[in-house]
Write a sequence for this structure.
DNA sequence: TATTGTTATACTCTATAACTATA
DNA sequence: TATAGTTATAGAGTATAACAATA
C-alpha cells in the first residue's frame, strides 16, 4: 500500500516548503525565540547580560525580600535551577539571602548595593534593546503582538 | 550616594511586580515558549513526539531529497546538532541518506516507508494539537498573532 | 504529612573549533 | 580556498528523584 515517491526536485536554501507547519503556533514561536535570542546577544552580550539572569535580578530590584520559590514560580524557572542561579549571584556579591523569622524553611532574597548598581548600569541598555526588538513591525502591530502574547500567558 | 531600601512588603505567589519587564517582547516570548512546550508534552508525549524531531521529519515528508544543510538552515538548527538528529533517525530506520552525483560532499535525505508511516501516524495528532494551542484567544486574535510572528520572522 | 530549598544526575539544545572529503 | 558534513567538547537550561530542615 506504499505510494511511489514523486521525482525529487533539488532543494536548496529557502525554497523549502514548510507546508502546514508554517502556521503552527508552536513552530513559529520556536523560530521566533531563536531570533529573539540571537538579537539579544548581538546587542547585549558586551554588557555581560543573559536574559534569564537579568530577569531574576530585575525582579529582585522591583521586589526586595521576595522568596526564592515565589521568584521561581513567577519566572517559571524550576527550583533546582533557581538554586544554582542564586548561588552564582551570591558568589558574585550581587544578592544576599536571609532566613525569615516566621518561616525558617524559606529564603528571602535582596540585592546588595553592588547588585543594585549592576542592574542600574544595565537597565537602560536592556530596555532600549527591548524597545527596538519589534522594529520590523509598525508600532500598532508591536503593541498588538505583545498584547496577544500576554493574553496567551494570562498575564 | 546609596538610597535606603523601602520596608519590604512580604511577597508570595503572584503579587510579584514584573514592572517594565512584563511588556518586553523577549521576556513574554520566553514565558510563552515555556507554556507552548508544556502543553505540547502534555498532549503529545504519548505519541513519542518531540517538537524539533517532528519538524525535521515533516520537512522531509514535504521535501524528499532535501540536503542536510538546507534543512538545518531552514529550521535554524546548527549543523552539528542536525548531524546527531539525522544519525538517530537513520538508526531508527526512519530516513535514508544518499550522496548526490553532482556534489559528492552533500547528503540527500529521504524518509523510508517506515518514516512516512511514522509521520502519517502522528500528523493528525500533531496538527490537531496545533489547532487548539490558541484556544484562549478568539479565532481572529489567533490568526493575527500567527501573522505578526510570521512578519517578525520575515517568513 | 507537606513544603522550602538543596544535591545529584541526566538529557536536550546549543556553540565552537578542528577535522575529512570533496569542490 | 571554500563548502558539506562530522567529531569532540563544553556550556546553558531543564527535568526528576531523593534528601534535610522546618512547618
Amino acid at each position: 500500500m506504499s505510494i511511489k515517491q514523486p521525482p525529487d526536485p533539488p532543494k536548496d536554501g529557502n525554497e523549502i516548503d514548510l507546508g502546514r507547519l508554517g502556521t503552527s503556533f508552536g513552530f513559529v514561536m520556536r523560530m521566533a525565540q531563536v531570533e529573539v535570542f540571537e538579537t539579544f546577544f548581538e546587542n547585549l552580550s558586551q554588557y555581560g547580560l543573559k536574559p534569564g539572569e537579568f530577569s531574576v535580578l530585575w525582579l529582585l530590584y522591583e521586589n526586595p525580600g521576595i522568596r526564592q520559590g515565589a521568584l521561581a514560580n513567577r519566572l517559571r524557572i524550576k527550583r533546582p535551577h533557581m538554586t544554582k542561579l542564586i548561588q552564582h549571584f551570591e558568589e558574585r556579591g550581587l544578592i544576599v539571602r536571609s532566613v525569615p523569622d516566621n518561616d525558617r524553611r524559606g529564603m528571602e532574597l535582596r540585592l546588595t548595593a553592588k547588585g543594585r548598581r549592576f542592574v542600574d548600569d544595565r537597565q537602560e541598555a536592556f530596555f532600549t534593546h527591548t524597545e527596538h526588538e519589534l522594529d520590523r513591525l509598525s508600532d500598532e502591530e508591536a503593541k498588538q503582538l505583545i498584547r496577544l502574547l500576554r493574553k496567551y500567558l494570562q498575564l
